[in-house]
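Internal QA ticket QA-208
Title: Verify multi-chain structure generation after dependency bump
Assignee: T.L.

Test input:
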Amino acid sequence: MPESSRVLKRGYSDTPFLPGSKWRIHDSDRPEPPIVLAGSSSTQQVIGSPPNDAMVLFDGSSLDEWQSVRGGEAKWRLSEGNAVSVEGGTGDIRSRQEFGSCQLHIEWSAPTEIKADSQGRGNSGVFLMGLYEIQVLDSYENPTYADGHAGAIYGQFPPLVNAMSPPGQWNVFDIVFEAPEYQSNELVNPATITLFHNGVLAHLRQVMQGPTKHRELASYSTPHGPKGPVVLQDHGDPVRFRNIWIRELDRIAAL
Ligand code: MG
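Actual output:
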């Protein structure tokens, strides 16, 4: 701060209380937000960096943070460009650590070799808590059912847009997931998803109907714990992933 800088009063203690809050307007005692060193965005050629309070789940160097959902090591293949490729038939992989509400950044690329259409083209998925799927699919000029598109809350809600990059190029999902809450085995808050696909809003706090199902209605009838792993789906297609990081959200609302 230059010496000539004026020191101003930091807030007030004589202003009205905000509705439903213990804080006054411009309250001088209200905690300031924690400082986070922001990261950088990726381009097609260059991988960005995470914010400094994120946990890196995958940066291209190893699959140490992952294991097979069948138990044992994750058998997917590290590939060019600090990526990992689905190794068809080896099964889904899951993060070793478990998370509840979170901000998840994940980049993925559909295979350039096209062998089928609709759900047979570049299919994978990102499961929050191992239960709630955001669909990964090559939706570039590839018609399919709406709630199965890339970015869909699979089997429930299509994304607001199709912002898909062509096969071989990178897509970015920035996800905010609010974990469902149970009390005494009764649902008190359902899960929600906010998703940006390549920076374009695809879901805004969309309320999920329950853990993902195929050709069945979802429901919250089977209670589960407050945390679960991030799971990436082996649907047989060599989809690639890179630059995966996560921030746990202990609180969603401002203090
Ligand atoms: Mg899928």
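Spot checks passed. The longest strand covers residues 170-178.
Status: verified.
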